[in-house]
Design brief:
The chain is built from 3 helices and no strands. Keywords: Membrane, Mitochondrion, Mitochondrion inner membrane, Transmembrane, Transmembrane helix.
Length: 77
């Protein structure tokens, strides 16, 4: 089997302005699901936070009984 250490040493030590985690061919395949989950989770949290704030400001409290949360009545929609 070929020794790939010198190849990767040259690749990662080259000063070409590319970040280390973006230098290999597999980087996009590995990072794309991570970025999707990261920004998707952030977007979902922002959506729910804004939704809760706007519902409470404009329509009053959506649930007045604290037991509703325990009974599973508080959903995304």
């Amino acid at each position: 089997r070929e020794n790939r250490v010198p190849y990767y040493q040259r690749l990662f030590q080259k000063h070409d302005g590319i970040r280390q985690w973006n230098k290999t061919a597999r980087s996009r395949a590995i990072l794309m699901p991570y970025y999707i989950m990261l920004w998707g989770g952030f977007g979902a949290s922002m959506y729910m936070m804004c939704r809760q704030v706007l519902v409470r400001w404009f329509f009053g409290s959506p649930r007045t009984n604290a037991d509703d949360v325990l009974q599973g009545k508080k959903t995304w929609y």
